[in-house]
Amino acid sequence: MVRVGIIGASGYGGGELIRLLKAHPGVELVGFSSRKHEGKPLSSAWPQLWDEGLFATLEDVLERAEVVFLALPNGLAMELAPRALKEGKRVIDLSGDFRLPPEVYESWYEIPHKSPGLYREAVYGLPELHREELGGARLVANPGCYVTATTLALAPLAAEGALRGAFVVGLSGVSGAGREGEGTFFAEVNENLKPYKVGGVHRHIPEMERNLGRLLAQGRPVRTHGPLGEVRLSFVPHLVPMTRGILVTVEAEVEGNWNQKALDELYQDFYAQEPFVRITEALPETKGTYASNRVDVKPLYEARTGRVMVFAALDNLVKGMAGQAVQNLNLMLGLPEETALPREGLWP
Ligand SMILES: NC(=O)C1=CN([C@@H]2O[C@H](COP(=O)(O)OP(=O)(O)OC[C@H]3O[C@@H](n4cnc5c(N)ncnc54)[C@H](OP(=O)(O)O)[C@@H]3O)[C@@H](O)[C@H]2O)C=CC1
Ligand SMILES: CC(=O)N[C@@H](CCC(=O)OP(=O)(O)O)C(=O)O
C-alpha cells in the first residue's frame, strides 16, 4: 500500500480525491489537511462521508505521506512541492503552478514563480498523450478542466499535422470555480448564463496552445519538454447554472480536405486503446459523464460550410481534476491505469 496524503482536502478537488482514493485498493490515505477544519472529522467538511478521520495539519500530512496531492489555489504548490520532493515525496499538483514555463505562467497567472527551476522536473499529467513519461515522474502537473476537454477534442487533428488553430466555446458548471469561487452565489448564477474572461485573457489559452503545439511538432507520444509547433486559438468560457460538467464546442481550423468518414476513422483510431475516451455517435452531453472519469468526444464535418467541429464533455471534478490525478498516480506507481476510476457516470 502506498501512503497518500491530500493537502487542501476541504475543497472540491480534495473532496473528490477522498471519494476516489477511499476506494483505491493500493492506497492508504494517511492524511488530509485543511486550515478551517483542522482537528475536526472529515464529515465536518463532507456531509456525504461517514468517516470520523480527523483533518490534520499540512505538516502532519507531509510527514506521513509518500505521495502528496496538492489541491490548493494557484501560487501555493510552487512553495510546497520543492520541500516535499526534497523530503523524498512524490507530488501531484492540481493547480497551474507547473503546467507552463515559469515566464509564461507569470504573465498569464500574474503570480511571481518561486520555484522556476522546478518546471523542468514536472511531467504534464494528461495520460492519453504523456503516458510513457508519467511512469517515473516525481512531480506531475495536473491539467486544467477546460484544457483537458479541448486538448482531447483536438489532439487527433494536431497529431495528424492538420491543426492550425481553433475557436473554442467552453461551458462549465459552477464547481469549476472552487468551493469558495468568486461570483458563484446561487441568486446570481441560477437562471443565468454568461461568458467570462473573454478576449484572449483566460489562463487556459497558453496551456491549450502548448498541448496542441507539442502534438503538432512531435506526434504521439509527446514529451512535456519537447519541441512545440504553432497553434493559435480563441477561447470563450461560460458559467452555466449547474454543479458539475464541462462541454466544449470547437471549430477547428484545419489543413487538407475532410469529410465525416475521414474524421470518424481518425478519431476512432487515435483513441482506440484509451480507457477513458469514448468517440460517440450521439452528441456529447455533460450529464452522461457525471461523476465518471470518461470524456465523450464527437467530431463533426459540416458539409454545407466545410467546417470541422468537435464536441467534448467531461466532469470537471473527475477527468477535469481529481480523477485525472488518480489516473496519473496509477501510472506513476505502475498500477493498472483504470484502478479506482469509474468509466460510467450517474444518471439523472
Ligand atoms: N474546480 C475545478 O473544477 C478545477 C480546479 N482546478 C485547480 O485545482 C486546485 C484546487 O481547486 P478546488 O479544489 O476547486 O479549490 P477549492 O477552493 O475548492 O479548495 C481549496 C483548498 O485549499 C485550501 N486552502 C486555500 N488556501 C490555502 C492556503 N493559503 N494554505 C493552505 N491551504 C489553503 C482550502 O482549505 P482551507 O482554507 O481550510 O485550508 C481548500 O481545502 C486549484 O488550483 C484549481 O485552480 C483544476 C482543475 C479543475
Ligand atoms: C467556472 C470556473 O471559474 N472555472 C475556472 C477553471 C478552473 C480550473 O480549471 O483550474 P485551474 O485554474 O487550475 O486551471 C476558470 O475558468 O478559471
From TrEMBL:
It is an enzyme of class 1 (oxidoreductase). InterPro entries: AGPR, AGPR_AS, AGPR_dimerisation_dom, AGPR_type-1, NAD(P)-bd_dom_sf, Semialdehyde_DH_NAD-bd. It holds the Pfam family Semialdhyde_dhC_1. It catalyses: N-acetyl-L-glutamate 5-semialdehyde + phosphate + NADP(+) = N-acetyl-L-glutamyl 5-phosphate + NADPH + H(+). Pathway: Amino-acid biosynthesis; L-arginine biosynthesis; N(2)-acetyl-L-ornithine from L-glutamate: step 3/4. The active site is at C145. It is found in: Cytoplasm. Keywords: Amino-acid biosynthesis, Arginine biosynthesis, Cytoplasm, NADP, Oxidoreductase. Its EC number is 1.2.1.38. Residues 3-137 form the Semialdehyde dehydrogenase NAD-binding domain. Its main location: cytoplasm. One of its GO terms (molecular function) is N-acetyl-gamma-glutamyl-phosphate reductase activity. Gene3D superfamilies: Dihydrodipicolinate Reductase, domain 2, NAD(P)-binding Rossmann-like Domain. Belongs to the NAGSA dehydrogenase family. Type 1 subfamily. Catalyzes the NADPH-dependent reduction of N-acetyl-5-glutamyl phosphate to yield N-acetyl-L-glutamate 5-semialdehyde. This is N-acetyl-gamma-glutamyl-phosphate reductase. It comes from Thermus antranikianii. The lineage of its organism: Bacteria, Thermotogati, Deinococcota, Deinococci, Thermales.
